[in-house]
Amino acid sequence: MGKLRASEGIRSTNRRAPAERTISNRQIAELLALAGEKAEGYKRKAFFRAAHAAFVWPVETAELVESGRSLTELPSIGPFLAKEITGWINNPEFPTPPPVRRNFLTLAEADQILTIHPEMRARLKGDLQMHTEWSDGSGTIRDMADAAIGRGYEYISITDHTKGLKIAGGIDETQLAVQADEIQKINRDFENRGQKFQVLRSVELNLSPGGEGDLDCDFLRSLDLVLGSFHSKLRVTEDQTERYLAALENPCVHILGHPRGRIYELSHRLESELAARLRTRGGVGQGD
Prior knowledge:
By secondary structure, the protein is α/β, with parallel strands linked by helices. The chain has two domains: 6-111, DNA polymerase beta, N-terminal domain-like (DNA polymerase, domain 1, Orthogonal Bundle); 124-281, TIM Barrel, CATH 3.20.20. The chain contains eleven helices and five strands; from the N terminus they run ααααααβαβαβαβαβα. Strand 2, helix 8 and strand 3 (198-207) form a beta-alpha-beta unit. The relative contact order is 0.09.
């Protein structure tokens, strides 16, 4: 049997009451990380790989065990880790994560929230950040569009990484122009079929700590949307207010992506007084 994917989670109609203190995937992730800190070699890597994977498991591990299914159906889980996790489920511990691993929401938790509040899902009309095989994603643009249509979306924004982020396969202006032609053909196909769905020509612009992008601004103006994001110097502890303001004042950036710069296990959020400064200034682009 293959590994469970995000779209294949089981739905439990018999959820435990909070008072029973059933261990969650988020708490399993912390136990995996703690075990990884004590382990060495390949076991250490296996624990931390599973800790990251726990946040995108499509179902709570406790529910999977209760239904009689094997935990090895989950990504990054083999027999050894399945035995460890089963032991934690049967004798749960609830450790408090350190700040670098705190306040991350799991896919299973998000699914439960949307199940309880279906009106929240109904309000979702599109997705303005996604990567494809053009950079570090795995699906084609058409794959992403078809999946979005299946979710009832009206639009998506293809925001592949730009050339400055080589580790993520960032693309340049020439490649983006070719991608734009592909998007135009896909949109034309939807229009010819009478389908009201649009793929936006977009990009996730790699921003320097000074707020500058790595693509020509005149070229960026030809796109429908530009998402600007920081990908470097995410572990600094000094105030980063000026960095944020510089990015927001960049005339080629429409949206500031993942502004806190948090990465599970790797970096805390960037500190700033951005909200207070914006209130004082009356908005970006206003005089001091």
